[in-house]
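Run: sequence + manganese (II) ion -> complex structure.
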Amino acid sequence: VKRQECEEKVLSHITPLREEREHIHSVADRIIGAVNTSGKAKGMIAGSVARDTWVRGDRDLDIFMLFDPSMSREALEEHGMGLARSIARRLSGAVVEKYAEHPYVNTEIEGLSVDLVPCYAVDNAARIQSAVDRTPFHTLFVREHIGDLASDVLLLKQFAKAGGIYGSDQMTGGFAGYLCELLVIWYGGFSQVIEAASSWRPGVVIDIRGHQSKEFEDPLVVVDPVDPRRNVAASLTLTRFAEFVEFAHGYREAPSMDFFFPPVQGVLDFECFKAALGERGTYLYAIVFSTPHTIPDIVVPQLRKSLAAIAGMLDRYGFTVSRSDCCMGEARCMLLFELLVDSLPALKRHMGPYIWNGSNADDFRDKYRNGTFSGPYIEDGRYWIDIQRKHTSAGELLGSDSPLKVSLGKHVMASMQRGFTLLSGPGCWTEGFESFVSGFIRKQSPLVRIKQKREEIG
Ligand code: UTP
Ligand code: MN
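>> structure
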């Protein structure tokens, strides 16, 4: 297939350079040599470097250390981490212990961010004991099937990055590198992926090996060719899926460099932010607290759960939420709410039981005989009262201990119990969150962002 002119141009910017390739492989060889000479495990390059599908300038090297599968889980962790630490110390000095499904070590060697990941050397993908054991099989599969489509993978990765939808971490919920590789292999190239994706609707199933072993509910299902129990696109959200469809559609209509190197959306300055808020006429509130000390993929779902729980509480109290979002920074997290209603009158209508509801009706009438604005009165067969509202201002509700009583995730709860700050209006513009709050009020889809910039430039 002939490439678009802009695609050729993009490739000239993102294809790894020869010296970069040599450097990254020389570092990899040294690490693998160190793993192999330890006699404890076998070293293997994994991830995009092993498949020649990394985007120029990416500094990420994944090295897997394959251990004897008869070892216990504890022994693997102990020996695996011991070996990883000693290699990291010897080659760089810096050791950062990380944890995904299992612990691993991250270190920096000659400007590369190197992950040293212990896993089991299972001889057959059906014997996988944990998620990391799959990765070496991914490498084998991609190497075997990628043919001359590595450049197409680079284009797709860069395209997804430009749309803000690259990465399978919880916060992004987008396309993993391996998913990009499989899509290119399945459809036969970048433009074929774009063409297919521009008419995707939820429920797409791609089953390269024809496993048909399990039903998945996700918007996109790509059965892992090395493990039919797994959907490679499991962490792709419906929103990111739709953004990709939109972006692909837009690219097909008018291909351009913008779809790979998008115009940057500048952060508003404080004055513009304040003015924009004024125009919207809404009420912004932010809850800010310390980021829990656990892995991001655990914190992020808890942030979302907490966000939904607090938004639900606001709605129940009558403070209608227009939109909400969360942000996880290194040190602090923010839950942000935009409300249509900020203060309510003292009066609240409260529903009671049907009056033929025996003792409930009696109890209700007795309980509220005094102290109401009106009632108990009867409407459509049941008691009603007009009473004093507990919280007449959203700020007062959010500043009370009520947010701590809804179902927050465990770590978020612990952190918020230690204390949180409530910000409001322009005050939500706070250090470290400028681009988040700015992006919140200028929210737009990836394609709209590009089209709008194009119009601005003229
Ligand atoms: P990486 O996140 O480093 O991805 O995961 P990558 O393929 O190397 O892509 P880039 O170029 O760095 O962005 C390393 C490997 O872990 C497995 C894949 O085999 C991947 O190649 N993995 C990672 C998954 O199977 N699923 C994921 O969601 C993430
Ligand atoms: Mn990688």
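>> summary
Residues 46-48, 54, 58, 60, 62, 135, 138, 168, 176-178 surround uridine 5'-triphosphate (ligand 1) (CB under 6 Å). The chain has 16 helices and 15 strands.
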